[in-house]
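User:
Care to share a sequence and structure tokens?

Assistant:
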Amino acid sequence: MIPIYLNRMSMKDRFRGKDFLTLMDFSPIEIDYLLKVSSQLKLKRMMKEPHEYLLGRTIAMIFEKNSTRTRFSFQAGIAHLGAQSFYATPETMQLARGEPIKDTARILDRYCDALVIRTFGQEIVDEYAAYMKNPVINALTDLVHPCQGLADLLTIREHKGDFKGLKLAYIGDPWNVCHSLMVVSSLLGIDCYVALPKGWNPNQRIIKFAEEHAAVGNSSMIITDNLSEALSKADIVYANTFHSMGHKDIEARKVAFAPYQINDETIKLADEKCIFMHCLPGYRGEEMTNSVIEGPNSVVWDQGENRMHTEKAVLALTVA
């Protein structure tokens, strides 16, 4: 039996064949729908009920960056949905000898029903999408990480209920995960505080989007160098690494961000019932201590699991 939310044709039609490039492309209603489908699929997985809605489909996967959670969650999810995945890196493809993306894209489009891609520049996934009729799913770029943002929302909803009025404190590198959290917070009414040293700022395009949408929803979008301000009474404490894949100034970042560590003392500034989140991989002893990630407030492992359920919802809805 297809989950109830997959039976609503009017909403299904919004997603069928649509690319999943950034959460800025989706309305709050559509994001809510994605989360509801994710919960339905999660329940089916827990009950060991078959849900092979993509039986006979083929999904290409191009990963230019190393991956644990994204690769395994997508490949497991694709298998649960009854589809077949094909994993490759650019080094194992003709891309390595200079074949244009537009040529690769149009060929993959003839073979496979969707492309999942994890790469560097957002312009790369945009180019694949421009030359493919089948959906392109962004599994991470330097700009955004929409799959992580969706999994984060499902985890927050499971532990905190409604989004409106919650306070989220993000501490770490102002990179793709930060950007996606800013986007979803502004769309769903979460008060978002990004704490980081002066001189390290999120992308201006993301700031503009988040501030405009937060204003519409009467929520806060604050970028501050004051850790105490960000953490004060926070419902969600979200730590992330101080240095992301591709950064060359790692040592400088470690020094600059060192005062922003989430530990047994700093987490006390947040609400006592706060949840602690981290997208992983994490560096214990840098952005967080072992006692925090292993502590009673941590929902990190739920968060990691939810990557699979939300990615399955994206696939089930977008693949024709």
The beta strands are 58-63, 84-88, 114-118, 136-138, 167-171, 191-195, 221-224, 236-239, 275-277. The two ends are 18 Å apart (CA to CA).
